[in-house]
Design a protein that fits this description.
Elements lengths: L4 H24 L6 H79 L2 E10 L8 E4 L12 E3 L4 E8 L4 E5 L6 E6 L5 E7 L2 E7 L11 E4 L13 E8 L8 E7 L8 E7 L43
Antiparallel strand pairs: 1-2, 1-12, 2-5, 3-4, 3-12, 4-5, 6-7, 6-9, 7-8, 8-11, 9-10, 10-11
Length: 315
């Protein structure tokens, strides 16, 4: 259509009619005179709109999915972060439970032996120089710790305090080659001296070369004068080997210590000795021997062999 006065007049007229129909439709509400036309148009163009919507919706859904995937990625990262935090907390809780268990066992030993102890945690292992078997604990002079105090844990003898700082102390472990402690054999009360051998069993020299001792016997600390550096009755270990007695003045034993010196965590420093020697009361209960299985032998009688030259008659 060419741009003429007639065409422009027609366009203005159509626009005026459209505005008039819109005004009539709005004012008429549900009773609008053009409502029927609207329904007719919906009937004609509805399927076309649905088809276009069906064609466009996957694209829209894909865009929404991409947008939501970003949200899900952020949420997943947040959940993974929360999960890592929960795992760390769980690990921390497990660690706390382990320490509480160690502390509880140590307090039971202290109760049996009537030891006054100061709890501590191992914060370092090894000396600054040399190859000594030592640990550093997080208590010191400010906590009442002094040199030559006995150190134990829930299993038994750990060592003795050698150096004390304001807030820390160094403990020489019973496994150190320079470590020596007086021992007493359970039951027989035979006395001896145990020395450390690093990662090998303790070496014990019994004063009585003819002492009756066997594998599985147990030893505790004998105690020192004025209870320093050792208080009596602390479990030391179990005899794992006995050297043959060769008529010497002493007898050599090898003792597996109760304490695992490579996995120390919670320990206690004995700051108050017992008023009375606990002797063997601090030792753990002996394990009950495994019952021997009862073997029942059933004998099945066999047929008696016939005498020489005698056979049963033929049927």
């Amino acid at each position: 259509m060419r741009d003429t006065k007639e065409s422009r007049l027609l366009l203005v007229l159509l626009i005026a009619i459209a505005f008039a129909l819109i005004t009539v439709d709005i004012r008429g509400g549900e009773d609008s005179p053009v409502d029927g036309a609207r329904h007719a148009a919906a009937t004609v163009f509805g399927p076309i709109e649905n088809g276009v919507s069906a064609a466009v919706d996957p694209v829209g859904n894909a865009v929404a999915a991409i947008r939501d995937s970003g949200d899900r990625h952020d949420r997943l990262a947040e959940l993974e972060k929360e999960n890592a935090a929960l795992k760390a907390k769980l690990g921390s809780d497990d660690r706390s439970r382990s320490r509480l268990k160690q502390l509880d066992t140590m307090l039971k030993i202290a109760g049996k032996g009537q030891y006054g102890i100061k709890g501590a945690q191992v914060i370092a292992i090894g000396a600054a120089q040399g190859f000594s078997w030592t640990i550093t604990i997080d208590v010191g002079a400010h906590d009442g710790i002094k040199r030559d105090m006995t150190v134990l844990n829930g299993d038994g003898l750990v060592g003795r305090v050698t150096t004390v700082g304001p807030d820390t102390a160094t403990v020489l472990l019973a496994s150190d080659p320079d470590f020596t402690v007086g021992t007493r054999l359970e039951g027989s009360d035979e006395l001896g001296f145990a020395s450390g051998q690093g990662d090998r069993p303790l070496r014990v020299e019994l004063l009585n070369g003819k002492a009756e001792v066997k594998k599985g016997d147990r030893l505790v600390t004998f105690g020192s004068q004025a209870d320093k550096p050792f208080v009596p009755g602390v479990p030391v270990g179990v005899v794992s080997r006995v050297d043959p007695s060769g008529g010497d003045l002493t007898r050599t034993l090898y003792v597996t210590p109760y304490v695992g010196f490579t996995k120390l965590d919670v320990v206690g420093v004995v700051v108050q000795a017992p008023k009375k020697d606990p002797r063997d009361t601090v030792l753990p209960d002996k394990p009950e021997p495994a019952p021997r299985p009862t073997v029942t032998v059933t004998v099945t009688p066999s047929a008696q062999a016939p005498a020489d030259g005698q056979f049963p008659p033929e049927q």
